[in-house]
Design goal:
Structural class of chain B: alpha/beta
CATH architecture of the largest domain in chain A: 3-Layer(aba) Sandwich
Largest sheet of chain A: 4 strands, mixed
Number of helices of chain A: 7
Oligomer: heterotrimer
Shape of chain A: elongated
Radius of gyration of chain B: 26 Å
Number of strands of chain A: 5
Number of domains of chain A: 2
Strand order of the largest sheet of chain A: 3-2-4-5
Largest sheet of chain B: 5 strands, mixed
Chains: A alpha+beta, B alpha/beta, C alpha/beta
């Protein structure tokens, strides 16, 4: 018998989420959004529970989770950094910003720093093309960046 | 008096929220609450100069306003009636201050239909929408017109889908209305995914009610009482504004049962995207709304016959819907008088890239590229030379100097090897390498391909690999032929619109910039200096003063030289990061 | 029927409205190549994701090429299936597939039986013009099935089988783009999933991405070991399909040649699982009647319907998905396991061989049997009742490897005593057969009367869910039959909801029953092959003199000499089993 380990209160919270969507399998993506909100990511255990509640196969849940880039199975850093790779940002030098973040944090895109403080991701167009190149730290938008500003941004969060 | 503060994402990122609260506090401090209303609006479009503040009724347009400027605006302008000159827009040609936006080059050629309310109203207040003829069109449809009459009007107006394909909207509604079913759906596609396009976001943030009203009208026409908005989860502000608007519309009886006292029922729910570009394709979008992987399926059956949970479903995008209420109010003839022969009305473009006035613009169909780039966009940044403009995002292609005087509409763009797409318009200058640009788009498509069909799953990967080979200087002339043949087969055989258009950036750059491709192969040269593998950094002995700044900043210690002596770069060690060129104050480092 | 006229390759064809271009082309003898498409007409199973894009054709007036499998013909359509435009596109698409496919064909399990390989051959591919990175994944070996997903071409047939037909839901497309592939949840191994090992994914996989675990070498080693006595049992459905591997027409019965081949392979005793099938009827039939009579006498503790339990895929299915119902199926072991248990006790004693020195090999149309024989409850001191289970396909490989010219073999008989069987046992190989065999015996035992006619046509056929009421001399017995696990699920849901009115239900995991098992020669989408096998099975039954299990004289003798009576104490120990709840438990940790 396979065993799932999660705290009871969070499991209840998750089940309530499913229930709030009438355990309707058509609401899978909405449920996953909420679940990621609760846990910060979507570990296998969470997907098992969702599958059970919505009465679908866990393979189907994973099929969906692995399809959409918004969903992740690894915990993000305390300050998730997302670099916009939209075209406007690209032509205004987003690639250099990525390289600099990789160098400063010493991690690759998709990774989290060992201390769990930062994670690095790319996303496509946040719609702030006027400020290109743009980076998000959490919900905060930083615009008109140059490679030099990377260190400053990181140091804002390491104080 | 009204003080309108742009609350769009761009300005928001430049602390317009702080500016807004400062303005409000100071207005309160001065006891002006009864005379002055401070309102957060949607996007004004002129993102380059954000945050924007507009004072009504005298139409003063302040640019790049910082939170600390709030006091001066209130004390000088509102109280003393003196405009704050330093915050006014400066005409780049004659350096004169311009106070009213309609005299600015950026706005002069624009005609705002879809964006008519963005920047004018508080998107979180339904009364402001209603004050500008909001929900009049819905009332007119429900009480004075039959669904068929509305459909006829839409057909006559010539409105075509603004999401990219350009399918006639009225015709789409008619087909869905004729599908027989107990349940039908109206879906608003707000999964704006083209990198570099943000018009749907701006409309939802700035004027959410226009979309709600149009969806209800569509529901009335096709016989649907359920509306769904499929919106990107990456748009939290738009989601919030939409939720607020739906709530208000329900409170006003404009959504729900027996709307405006008729027997028409209609309500709207939200569905969230989760980061998959392919979900902009309507069948994929529908599968995603059903909680599945966003994989497209074969058409036919079209969603208008069998869509969401196999029910007839009418899918239109945000901008298309935003046009609808105005068309009803002002009539089909008015709308069809705007634009070109086969493309009626206006189109919103997100103008970005190497251009002076980055922002959101709306122009009549048929406006030329030259007008957009030089008059509205204010020309190329830093005085560089225009090279190309990419339209249609990853599905589109590049237009070049020879297309500058081509009127922009659906058919002309297609004929030029590009497409309208959702309206991203990325301007490129001489520093952009067209092979790299094609590679950039292919990288996007490879990442966003759903993986269902062979041509898109493997074919695009191969295209990307060949392009990568070219940018590394390892390409052959046969590779260019292979790119062409493979691109054609992918266009011919891919399952959905994403795959069928994904080779467009390759084909259009080959067609327009063949010489750059050949240079990458035969001369191992990238004229834009973008392809790292094809460039070398050199220090000009005549300019080098031996300040050692480059050597100190080189991350791999590739630069050597005595203090006050000429430095040199060891090409075998150099990783071409560009740190030396950035640090050199004497223009001594050059790329060859 | 409404028809329309279309033009294919300059031929005017009249086709039924709603036909696809592929179907229309077939009508006029135009073969359009397909890869992902799969249509088992007789079973009403269809897979057409239109994903591979091999079957594209040119439709006049259309901007793009259209996939023939999923494009509906419209009145007046003009179609070209073979001009240079189409051929270039098809060839390029095939080269793309090959560019992301290992080229280890010579040592691939599917060598010679691979649809992709045949297509490359047909298309005359000599060079892949678009080589590049290949997607690589971890290989997954479970007790029955090997997943070598590097060879997956995303045809999605397995996914369709696993989800739509079987409703097991183990496989799903995962990831996206170039990295997309069909896999279990979290890309874990199959043995961490709820896989039933029914093998239907393997049965439809066009390439070597899904294959069975091969035990032929272990069998060869056992045969070569002078200290071992090796016996073989062969399942009913094998004899109706093995011939296909040697070029014989589908539906050719090769029972005699099969026995001869097994003898030439060197097995010391060539036995027949059919013997154990007769034994199963004795045990399961007795259990059925016991439960039925207790129920009729008002015993509230007896649950009906009773479900058959000879299909190991089905057993895995309810252990994972319906744990609350593990008391409903019969406790009788499958014929394979009954055979093993008897062979390693009764028969081993008889010939004076120690259990450890007796090797039991089974030849099965099934992959779940590979898992079944490894279950702990079928072992004594770690020694399994059945040592190796090989599929019909593996047996064919063995025969070929050992230089045996199968088609020229004489017909031979199975050995006694475990090779003797009745017509009732043979029909175990098809859907409806087990319950028909049970009825033949149960009727006579219950009523004490002889059956005039042993053929129960009402229980036969290919419909997924069938039902019939059999008159047990005034007592109407309501029988249900389902094949394909998705259909089994429907009947189980009925039982769960308390709406089921059946007394007994036969369930087979594979569509068609064992004739369509995951270990059978590949049908490559031709469902008429299954029908031919079914016909062969019934004809073997009809040709038998003894057609009721309880009349098998060796079975009677087995009870006399060894077991005592059906469902007696020794039977209970050797021939019955119990089931486990295999669902995922959610453990709460504070």
């Amino acid at each position: 018998m396979a065993v799932i380990k999660l705290s009871a209160s969070k499991i209840d919270e998750l089940k309530d989420v499913c229930k709030s969507f009438n355990n309707d399998k058509g609401e899978l993506i909405n449920v996953l959004h909420k679940a990621q909100g609760i846990f910060g990511y979507l570990p296998a255990e969470v997907q098992e529970i969702i599958a059970k509640e919505l009465k679908i196969s866990v393979a189907q849940v994973y099929g969906v989770v692995s399809f959409y880039s918004f969903f992740t199975m690894t915990p993000k850093g305390e300050h998730p950094i997302s670099i916009c790779l939209g075209t406007a940002c690209y032509v205004r030098g987003a690639e250099k910003i990525i390289e600099e973040f990789k160098r400063v944090l010493n991690i690759s895109v998709g990774e989290t720093t060992p201390d769990g403080k930062f994670s690095l991701a790319c996303l496509r167009c946040v719609g702030a093309c006027g400020l290109a190149p743009v980076v998000l730290v959490g919900d905060k938008v930083y615009g008109r960046l140059s490679a030099d500003s990377v260190k400053e941004i990181v140091s804002e969060y390491t104080k | 008096m009204h003080v309108l503060v742009c609350g769009g994402t761009g300005c928001h990122a430049s602390e317009s929220d702080k500016l807004l609260s400062n303005l409000k506090t100071i207005v309160a401090d001065k006891g002006l609450e009864n005379d002055v209303q401070v309102i957060a609006t949607g996007c004004f479009g002129f993102c380059e100069k954000g945050p924007i503040v507009k004072i009504m009724p005298d139409n003063t347009f302040y640019t790049q306003v910082k939170p600390d400027d709030a006091r001066e605006i209130i004390e000088e302008h509102l109280i003393k009636g003196r405009k704050v000159n330093r915050l006014l827009y400066v005409n780049p040609e004659n350096k004169e201050h311009i106070s009213d936006s309609k005299h600015m080059g950026f706005y002069k050629k624009q005609l705002r239909i879809a964006l008519r309310n963005c920047g004018f109203i508080d998107p979180e207040n339904i009364d402001e929408y209603i004050a500008r003829e909001g929900y009049e069109a819905l009332g007119k449809c429900l009480t004075e017109m039959t669904p068929q009459q509305v459909i006829e009007l839409m057909k006559k107006s010539g409105l075509r889908g603004r999401g990219g394909g350009g399918f006639p909207t009225g015709l789409k509604w008619e087909i869905t209305s004729k599908s027989v079913s107990d349940v039908k759906y109206v879906v608003c596609n707000a999964d704006e995914g083209d990198p570099g396009a943000f018009m749907d976001r701006s409309i939802l943030e700035g004027d959410p009610h226009s979309v709600i009203e149009a969806m209800a009208i569509c529901g009335y026409c096709i016989g649907a009482s359920n509306g769904l908005v499929y919106i990107r989860a990456e748009y939290p502000l738009a989601i919030e504004r939409l939720k607020t608007a739906i709530k208000q519309a329900r409170e006003y009886g404009l959504l729900g049962n027996n709307i405006l006292g008729t027997d028409f029922n209609f309500d709207i729910e939200l569905r969230y995207g989760a980061g998959a570009f392919v979900c902009g394709e309507e069948t994929a979008l529908i599968h995603s709304m059903e909680g599945k992987r966003g994989e497209p399926t074969m058409k036919p059956p079209f969603p208008s016959v069998s869509g969401y949970f196999e029910k007839p479903t009418n899918v239109n995008n945000v901008e298309t819907f935003a046009n609808v209420p105005v068309i009803i109010n002002k009539g089909a003839d008015w709308f069809s008088s705007i634009g070109s022969e086969k493309s009626k009305g206006t189109k919103v473009f997100a103008l970005a890239g190497k251009i002076n006035n980055v922002g959101l613009i709306e122009v009549p169909m048929g406006t030329t590229l030259r007008e957009v780039i030089y008059e509205i966009g204010g020309g190329i940044k830093d005085g560089k030379e225009f090279k190309a403009v990419q339209t249609g995002g990853p599905s589109g292609g590049c237009l070049t100097k020879k297309h500058l005087d081509t009127p922009i509409d659906y058919d002309n763009l297609l004929a030029s090897g590009s497409m309208m797409g959702s309206g991203g318009m990325i301007v490129m200058d001489e520093d952009d390498c067209m092979v790299s640009v094609a590679k950039f788009y292919l990288e996007f498509t490879v990442e966003e391909s759903c993986g269902k069909c062979t041509p898109c799953r493997i074919g695009n990967k191969r295209l990307h690999e060949i392009l990568d080979k070219l940018t590394k200087g390892n390409g052959t002339l046969e590779d260019i032929d292979r790119l062409r043949n493979l691109s054609k087969v992918i266009k011919d055989t891919a399952l959905c619109g994403l795959g069928q258009t994904s080779p467009n950036p390759v084909l259009s750059t080959i067609d327009n910039f063949m010489e750059e491709y050949i240079e990458h192969v035969t001369d191992k040269k990238c004229r834009a200096g973008r392809c790292k593998a094809l460039m070398q950094y050199h220090i000009l002995s005549e300019n080098c003063v031996g300040c050692t700044a480059c050597a100190r900043n080189c991350p791999v210690n590739a630069i050597s030289g005595e203090r006050k002596g000429v430095h040199t770069i060891n090409q075998e060690v150099c990783i071409k990061c560009g740190a030396c060129i950035e640090k050199c104050k004497f223009n001594a480092v050059v790329i060859k | 029927m409404e028809t329309i006229k279309i033009n294919i390759d300059n031929k005017i064809v009249e086709v039924a409205k709603g036909s696809t271009i592929l179907e229309a082309a077939k009508q006029v003898g135009i073969h359009i190549p397909t890869l992902c498409h799969l249509h088992l007409h007789d079973l009403n199973i269809e897979n057409k994701p239109a994903g591979c894009r091999i079957c594209v054709v040119e439709v006049a007036g259309r901007k793009n090429l259209a996939p023939a499998c999923a494009t509906e013909c419209l009145e007046g359509m003009v179609i070209n299936t073979n001009n240079i435009h189409v051929l270039n596109a098809r060839k390029t698409v095939l080269e793309l597939i090959l560019s992301d496919h290992p080229t280890d064909c010579l040592i691939c399990a599917k060598n010679g039986d691979c649809e992709l390989q045949s297509m490359a051959q047909e298309f005359g591919i000599r060079k892949i013009h678009y080589e590049g990175e290949q997607s690589t994944y971890r290989e997954d070996t479970s007790p029955a099935i090997i997943r070598d997903v590097d060879k997956c071409i995303m045809c999605r047939r397995c996914e369709m089988m696993c989800n739509e037909v079987q409703t097991v839901g183990v496989l799903s497309a995962v990831n996206r783009g170039f990295m997309s592939v069909v896999a279990p949840a979290f890309e874990m191994n199959l043995d961490h999933s709820e896989c039933t090992y029914c093998g239907q994914c393997v049965a439809v996989c066009p390439t070597g991405a899904l294959t069975e675990v091969d035990h032929t070498n272990a069998v060869i080693r056992a045969l070569a070991d002078p200290t071992k006595t090796v016996v073989v049992q062969t399942a009913p459905a094998v004899r109706a399909a093995l011939g296909e591997e040697f070029g014989l027409e589908p539906g050719t019965l090769v029972t005699g040649k099969l026995a001869a081949a097994l003898r030439r392979l060197g097995f010391n005793y060539v036995f027949d699982t059919d013997f154990a099938a007769d034994l199963t009827i004795m045990e399961e039939g007795t259990e059925l009647l016991d439960r039925l009579n207790r129920h009729l006498n008002g015993d509230k503790n007896v649950a009906l319907p009773i479900l058959t339990s000879c299909c190991p895929g089905w057993v895995n299915f309810f252990e994972h998905q319906f744990p609350e119902m593990i008391n409903i199926p019969s406790t009788a072991r499958s014929p394979q396991q009954m055979f093993g248990a008897i062979a390693k006790t009764y028969f081993a004693d008889k010939i004076g061989v120690k259990r450890e020195d007796l090797v039991v090999v089974s030849v099965m149309p099934c992959l779940a049997k590979k898992y079944e024989c490894q279950r702990d409850e079928f072992k004594t001191n770690g020694n399994p009742d059945v040592d190796y289970s090989i599929s019909t396909r593996e047996l064919a490989h063995l025969i070929k490897q050992l230089n045996i010219t199968f088609n020229e073999l004489p017909d031979e008989d199975f050995d006694a005593p475990l090779g003797e069987s009745t017509g009732a046992a043979v029909i175990f190989g098809t859907t409806g057969g087990v319950i028909e065999a049970a009825v033949r015996t149960a009727y006579e035992v219950q009523t004490g009367k002889k059956l005039d006619k042993v053929d129960f046509q009402e229980l036969r056929g290919m419909e997924f869910i069938r039902e019939a009421t059999i008159d047990f001399d005034g007592l109407p017995i309501k029988i249900g039959i389902a094949h394909g696990l998705g259909n089994a699920r429907k009947l189980l849901e009925e039982i769960k909801a308390g709406k089921s009115t059946y007394h007994a239900i036969e369930i087979m995991a594979c569509p068609g029953g064992c004739i369509g098992g995951g270990g059978q020669p590949l049908h490559h989408g031709d469902s008429s092959i299954l029908k031919a096998r079914q016909k062969a099975i019934y004809s073997e039954d009809a040709s038998k003199v003894i057609r009721k299990s309880h009349e098998n004289r060796y079975i009677v003798k087995l009870y006399e000499e060894f077991l005592g009576k059906p469902c007696g104490e020794l039977s209970h120990h050797l021939l019955h089993t119990h089931y486990f709840d295999k669902t995922v438990e959610i453990k709460v940790v504070e």
